[in-house]
Amino acid sequence: MWFAVFSILFYLISALMIAPLLNSSDNEKRRPKKTLFFLTALLAVVFHLISLYPALQELALERKFSLVEISSLMSVNIAILAILAMLVVNSMWFLLPIVFSFSIFNVVLETFMPSHMIQLLNQDSAMLFHIGLSIFTYAVCFIATLYAIQIGWIDHHLKAKKTLFPPVIPSLITVERHFFKLFAIGELLLTLTLISGVYHSINVLTAENIHKAGFSFLAWLIFGVALFGHWRLGWRGKRMIIYAISGIIFLTIAYFGSRLI
């Protein structure tokens, strides 16, 4: 439990280091030192992963995984991707408090509100690969959706013409460029996940697998239509935001809802 507590503590410290930036309109000096920030964020995800180790061990040995543990594993993957993205781009500062809050929420649930256990059928090395690919795909799509929300927030305040943006907030063009790249990568990964899922579902056709495949396909279709519309028709703005949020909702229902039926 102490590893989970330390993880929550360092997630909070990392989020608090970023928070002042969102209220500052002209003070570049308030940008946190990246070395210190990465140290606290790295400690947060390391402790988070250590707290998940018993669950991962149980998955490998007993082939069991709970809904809460799956959610926690997804959140730590999202946090790792977001932190690594900061090494390449500077448009993630605005999103990191949301990512860290999601991780804190899942650590709390995992530690203090353990859920019922579920059985994973036909679990072998190929199935473990499929699970890992699914989790990574969800993390990428989730971050892309956060970018879409950021686009909407920036666009709304630009039209209001009343907000002085802090230096940490990137330009709308920069956010859109990163969004479309992640969106396309997420669609590609989701395609691979669906192919892998079909391979495993052929042998075991259950209500859970049908539910998961159906909603995942709907998410894939929504993302695909959005990308095609952007590529051929120049779709941007609110339409793309609606498609991104709709797609992640269906993907969330596929990944989590299938475990509740």
From TrEMBL:
Keyword Membrane (UniProt): yes
GO CC, alphabetical: plasma membrane
BP terms from Gene Ontology: cytochrome complex assembly
InterPro entries to which the protein is assigned, alphabetical: Cyt_c_assembly (IPR002541), YpjD/HemX (IPR052372)
GO molecular function, one term: heme binding
Keyword Transmembrane helix attached: yes
Bilayer-crossing regions: 6-23, 35-53, 65-87, 94-115, 127-149, 182-202, 214-233, 240-258
Protein name as it appears in the record: ABC transporter permease
Origin species: Rodentibacter mrazii
